[in-house]
Amino acid sequence: MSGKHKGPFKMRIYERANFEGQMHELTDDCDSIQDHYHMSDMQSCNVMEGYWLMFEQPNYEGKMFYLKPGKYRNLKEISSDDTRFNSIRRITES
């Protein structure tokens, strides 16, 4: 049971590195960042609460990256290539 996180969940996503450009706050899953937030790219984020998975493609597909609470100034550093992140899901089960 200790692996589950019941919430709250909160993160801010930014269009550009170093928390610049368009910003949106998420408290729930998002199956397509481009469709819901009209952001061309997401290059930094601040995970305030909860644990999240970010995916390369919409609908939680493609390469997956795990995010724990913290500030991520440049998401290109964790993906090591030109990965774009297109969907985000909360981790609610262990």
UniProtKB/TrEMBL annotation:
Domain (Beta/gamma crystallin 'Greek key') ranges: 9-49, 50-92
**What SUPFAM superfamilies does the annotation carry?**
gamma-Crystallin-like
What the entry lists under Gene3D superfamilies is as follows: Crystallins
| Record's keyword annotation contains DNA repair | no
Entry's Gene Ontology molecular function annotations: structural constituent of eye lens
Q: Name one Pfam family in it.
A: Crystall
Keywords, comma-separated and alphabetical: Eye lens protein, Repeat
Superkingdom of the source?
A: Eukaryota
Q: Which family does it belong to?
A: Belongs to the beta/gamma-crystallin family.
Q: What is this protein called?
A: Beta/gamma crystallin 'Greek key' domain-containing protein
